[in-house]
Amino acid sequence: MMAAKLSFGEAILLASAASAQLYPDQSPLNHTCALQEPLLSCPPQDPSLVDSCCVETFGGLLLTTQFWDTYTGRESEGQLLPADTWTLHGLWPDFCNGSYTQYCDLTRQYDPIPSPNTTNAKPNGTFVPPYTGPKIGTFLEPFGKFDLLEYMNTYWIAQNQDNAGFWGHEFSKHATCFSTFNTPCYGPEYKQHEDVVDFFETTIKYYKRVPTFTWLEKADITPSNSTTYSYADFRDTLSAEFGAIPFIGCSGPRYNTTEAGKNGTDSGFTVLNEVWYYEHAYGRPQEGNTIAVNATSTYQTNCAKAEGAIHYYARTNGSEKAPTVPY
Ligand SMILES: *[C@@H]1O[C@H](CO)[C@@H](O)[C@H](O)[C@H]1NC(C)=O
Ligand SMILES: *[C@@H]1O[C@H](CO)[C@@H](O)[C@H](O)[C@H]1NC(C)=O
Ligand SMILES: *[C@@H]1O[C@H](CO)[C@@H](O)[C@H](O)[C@H]1NC(C)=O
Ligand SMILES: *[C@@H]1O[C@H](CO)[C@@H](O)[C@H](O)[C@H]1NC(C)=O
Ligand SMILES: *[C@@H]1O[C@H](CO)[C@@H](O)[C@H](O)[C@H]1NC(C)=O
Ligand SMILES: *[C@@H]1O[C@H](CO)[C@@H](O)[C@H](O)[C@H]1NC(C)=O
Ligand SMILES: *[C@@H]1O[C@H](CO)[C@@H](O)[C@H](O)[C@H]1NC(C)=O
Ligand SMILES: *[C@@H]1O[C@H](CO)[C@@H](O)[C@H](O)[C@H]1NC(C)=O
Ligand SMILES: *[C@@H]1O[C@H](CO)[C@@H](O)[C@H](O)[C@H]1NC(C)=O
């Protein structure tokens, strides 16, 4: 569920990847964000001219990402999908040009299964050591964030992995690459893992604003193992609701290998399973003051575009349950 789906754009090796500071010359200010004009994150601001804890100066193109999985692979352990709801994947900081980097601070490496296993996805990148400590969910306990934990265990669901392992992956691979979730941003009173709590809360703030299932349902697009849909149905419905064109991702067989698409030129995939919503943020992403932007025109989908080519499958019987906490 991780590596293949996340490969997009170009990973960039940073000489400073293992240091806690994304910028050696980060602002000497004490990160009182009320004093910093909340500038827009893209095109990128110069980190030597603004407080990079108060304006996202590293990964200014935010992606709110969700999955539509039909099973978890861990049903027997009670890991189930929330009925009638797309699940949370993450909140990613791409560069304004659409490329991205990952595992930017190895002092905050909480991913038990790093994927890829080097910082630049190449054999010559810095090795990302698998994490073996207490699960990241336990970091929330000293903060008394049991409600947050319950929400995450309801909506932030992994496939073929325990939920907390997946949350650790999302944090260490992606959150460490934001300038605004960097530990110095929390000032001299920083409490260990405060950045983790802040990132999880912020990710949920973004997730709640894009109720994909409900948006599709309003347009009579609901999961089905007998009906198929067209890519344009998803694109037009979600774009109208969100205000910009998201990336829509598919897996499964390529259309040209199916009976209907055989010998054709449409080789897109046919099973809907992801959506990525793109935004730029004013000031700290934590505040949620954003503008929706289109996914890059060269990569808006990998799904087949032929009429009726897309399956939006119903979940496997026994793989979902009614959520006990509200979306
Ligand atoms: C930031 O705080 C430190 C004390 O923690 C202080 O010495 C320093 O002068 C402050 N910097 C600014 C720009 O106010
Ligand atoms: C995209 O932006 C990043 C950050 O500014 C830069 O390092 C990278 O070289 C750029 N990539 C391309 C393909 O322009
Ligand atoms: C991690 O990297 C090593 C060395 O490049 C490679 O041999 C190994 O197969 C990789 N492991 C995974 C799980 O990708
Ligand atoms: C790392 O390997 C890639 C090819 O996999 C190469 O393009 C790049 O120049 C190498 N970087 C360094 C620093 O050796
Ligand atoms: C696909 O090509 C094969 C061999 O060229 C042909 O027998 C078959 O009828 C074609 N199928 C369709 C749907 O066009
Ligand atoms: C389907 O399209 C892909 C990508 O263009 C191609 O590699 C593959 O050979 C095609 N398969 C068939 C059965 O036509
Ligand atoms: C997004 O794409 C749509 C359709 O191509 C276009 O009408 C709209 O102006 C674009 N929005 C932005 C902000 O570029
Ligand atoms: C619908 O089809 C998918 C894909 O084959 C399957 O995983 C799922 O179990 C099916 N759902 C139901 C309710 O039969
Ligand atoms: C799933 O359950 C529905 C009724 O809830 C039933 O109609 C269907 O046959 C079941 N599918 C499978 C694959 O067991």
TrEMBL record:
Q: What is its EC number?
A: 4.6.1.19
Any one Gene Ontology BP term: RNA catabolic process
Question: Which keywords, in A-to-Z order, does the entry hold?
Answer: Disulfide bond, Endonuclease, Hydrolase, Nuclease, Signal
Q: Does the keyword Ion transport apply?
A: no
Q: Which InterPro entries match?
A: Ribonuclease_T2_eukaryotic, RNase_T2-like, RNase_T2-like_sf, RNase_T2_His_AS_1, RNase_T2_His_AS_2
Per the record's keyword annotation, is tRNA processing included, yes or no? no
The active site lies at H89, E170, H174
Give the signal peptide as a residue range, or say none if absent.
1-20
- What is the uppermost EC class here? lyase
Instruction: List the molecular function annotations (GO) for this entry.
Output: ribonuclease T2 activity; RNA binding
UniProt-listed Pfam families:
Ribonuclease_T2
Superkingdom: Eukaryota
Q: Show the GO cellular component annotation of the record.
A: extracellular region
PANTHER family in alphabetical order? RIBONUCLEASE T2
Protein family according to the UniProt entry: Belongs to the RNase T2 family.
How is this protein named in the record?
ribonuclease T2
